[in-house]
Design goal:
Layout (H helix, E strand, L loop, with lengths): L2 H16 L4 E11 L8 E5 L4 E3 L7 H14 L3 E7 L4 H4 L5 E9 L5 H10 L7 E6 L5 E4 L9 E4 L2 E6 L4 E5 L3 H12 L3 E6 L14 E4 L2 H8 L5 E5 L4 H11 L6 E4 L3 H13 L4 H4 L2 E2 L11 H17 L11
Parallel strand pairs: 10-11, 10-13, 11-12, 13-14, 14-15
Antiparallel strand pairs: 1-2, 1-5, 2-3, 4-5, 6-7, 6-9, 8-9
Length: 327
């Protein structure tokens, strides 16, 4: 599940409520077959008809919106189930048929501090949090969370527990043109981006409006930022004085992705330098270079998109993440 999508719904619901609207929340609690939205998917519905998020590919949103309005009118939660037959699957958007069970509940005003708690716990650097909801009473509570655990949804009898996490991070070394484009694309994809470079003149809010800017030597900054299993590191500067120390520092972390921009020849020379510094072959195997999926384009946007696509593929364990040169 895309944790960032659900956080957007939570933040939006809170903004609406702060603006005076009443809001109902719809949550997928179980799905079968080809339902395109997994358990934990959220949709918020305001009393004026605004919606955020989704609980299907579009085939049941209108019905869920009606249920949400009814929940707001009665103040009571409800659990609804929708099924699509194989014969009608293409017509309504579930390509192979399927079923989905959805919790629809009004968000009580006294739960706004809990929404604030989720938003704060999932800010960059936060530890994440769990939201526990009773399907019997409608009660809500927050619970501490192992922030390095994967996003999860657990339904036990009449209790739904959903975990929320801070956005995954991308640390970029080198305030270059590709980094400008990559930070914009990655931010839209839900990543929290940081650009590292010792050259302060290149690290400006005008060039990088979507990123956190860290002026300093990359190896020192990476050690300070402590990449974890929800962090990707990509070196982009083409300067061995910046890139090599950054890679050495990244290899001592749990970063789920470590990549380096450059041609095959440049990457081979880079690996040779790292070997000379005592890096093992198994550690070198963690460095993806030339970084990015082979999408064919050569422009700056094409390169940034290919890097983001590879980071996403690795993060989600997609088959595309298997590099042909390592297969």
């Amino acid at each position: 599940m895309h944790n960032e999508d659900e956080l957007h719904v939570i933040r939006t619901a809170l903004e609406w409520m702060e603006g005076g609207a009443d809001v109902a929340l719809a949550t997928v609690i179980h799905s079968w077959g080809s339902s395109p939205r997994p358990p934990g998917s959220l949709m918020a519905v305001a009393d004026d008809g605004r919606i955020a998020g989704s609980v299907s590919g579009g085939c049941v949103e209108a019905a869920v919106m009606e249920e949400a309005m009814a929940a707001l009118a009665t103040g009571c939660l409800r659990v609804v189930e929708y099924g699509v037959t194989q014969e009608r699957a293409w017509e309504v958007g579930l390509a192979c048929g399927g079923k989905v069970r959805i919790l629809v509940e009004p968000v009580q005003r006294n739960y706004m501090p809990l929404l604030h708690g989720i938003r704060e716990a999932c800010a960059p650097g936060g530890k994440g949090i769990g939201l526990i909801r009773s399907l019997k009473t409608g009660g809500w509570a927050l619970s501490p969370l192992d922030w390095q655990a994967g996003s999860s949804v657990l339904l036990e009898e009449q209790q739904l527990t959903q975990s929320f996490h801070p956005p995954a991070r991308i640390l970029m070394v080198g305030a270059v043109h590709v980094a400008q484009t990559l930070s914009g694309l990655a931010t839209k994809a839900g990543f929290a981006c940081t650009v590292i470079d010792p050259r302060a003149a290149l690290l400006t809010a005008e060039r990088f409006p979507d990123a956190r800017l860290c002026v300093g030597w990359p190896d020192e900054m990476i050690k300070e930022l402590k990449p974890d299993i929800r962090t990707a590191v990509i070196v982009l500067s083409h300067d061995p004085k910046l890139d090599d120390p950054a890679l050495l520092a990244a290899l001592h972390t749990q970063a789920f992705y470590i990549g380096a921009l450059g041609s095959a020849r440049t990457h081979a020379a880079r690996l040779a330098r790292l070997r000379d510094q005592g890096v093992s072959e198994s550690a070198l195997g963690r460095v993806r270079g030339p970084a990015g999926l082979q999408l064919g384009g050569r422009g700056v946007t094409d390169i940034a998109l290919s890097i983001l696509a590879e980071i996403s593929a690795v993060r989600h364990g997609a088959a595309l993440a298997i590099r042909q040169d390592a297969a």
